Each structure stands twice: as structure tokens, then as C-alpha cells.
């Protein structure tokens, strides 16, 4: 399979994920500004999730610039990533609609942890296919951000049962770590 076809499919899935999230936002029934307070948690969870999905889309775009060939393992690793990304709208809606309670906030953290792990698998499969001296292997290097993110998500999941504001701050903090696309790949091109 051509890598462009895989990237186009992934772009389509990510577009659907974002569409599902925005369709889950509901306008308030009242017409005054105070009515916006009721939908603020859903909107805030949407914004955070939109940023996360956009981060994955940006980095996926950069990642596939260095992919030389697509094989079955890469196809399945990419589908694995897309599967976990596709669950973000569910976790986003559950957390936001219920105003950030413990269990939905922990599940939201799990919905962030799993794509992060899937991303690591995807990178590892590409590096294994292309070799330890490939552009991607050199670009990723020690991958401090990639290795730091999963433990932070786990901390967010655990803190959800103590204070969900801490969890939300952790989730937002990890997003800030990744808000700038992974420039290591750009530099290797």
C-alpha cells in the first residue's frame, strides 16, 4: 500500500473523530449569557480533546514524511492508534457533560494514555522496519516527551480520585508539551 493512501485514510478518520466531538456539543436552551455556564464543562472538555486530536494529526503528518514503505505491521499499528483516538469523543462527552467527576475524568485519562502507547508502538514498528539508523530513529532519539507522557497520564488517572482539577491540569500540561509539532522529524528531513 502507498503511504499516501494510509495517511489519507488516517486524515479521514481523524476528521470524523473531530466531527463527532463537535456534534456532541449542545447549545443551551436559554438565551442569556448565564446559560453558557451550564455548557462550559462540555465546551472545555471539547477544546482540550480537539487540541489532543490536532496534536496527533500534526505529528502523524510529520511521521509519515519519513515512512519509506508500508507493510502489514504498520497498517495494523496505525489502525491501533486510530482505534484509541476514536474513543476520545466518548470520554470527552462523558467527562464534560457530567462536569468532570472522578470516574469519567479517570476514563478520559485512559483515553489519552492508550493513544500515547499506540503512538509508541507505531514509531517502534516504523523504526524496526526501516532500521536503527533510519531518519525516524535518529529524529526520535531518546524521545523524552514520548516517555514522559504515559506516566503523566497515569498520574492524572490516579489523581482523578483525589481531585479532578489536578488531573485536568496534568492532561492540559501534557497537551502543552506536544502543542508544537514534533520538530525532530522536520529537522531530519
Question: Which helices and strands appear, and what pairs or packs with what?
Answer:
Blueprint: H1 3-23, H2 35-63, H3 72-86, H4 88-97, H5 102-130, H6 135-140, H7 144-159, H8 164-178, H9 183-188
Task: Offer a quick outline of the entry.
The chain is mainly α and 189 residues long. 78% of the residues lie in helices and 0% in strands.
The run of helices and strands is: HHHHHHHHH
Largest sheet: none
Q: Compute the gyration radius: what is it?
A: 18 Å
Q: Provide the low-confidence segments as ranges.
A: none
Number of E strands: 0
Question: How would you classify the helix and strand content by structural class?
Answer: mainly alpha
Protein name: DUF1211 domain-containing protein
Keywords: Ion channel, Ion transport, Membrane, Potassium, Potassium channel, Potassium transport, Transmembrane, Transmembrane helix, Transport
Subcellular location: Membrane
Catalytic activity: K(+)(in) = K(+)(out)
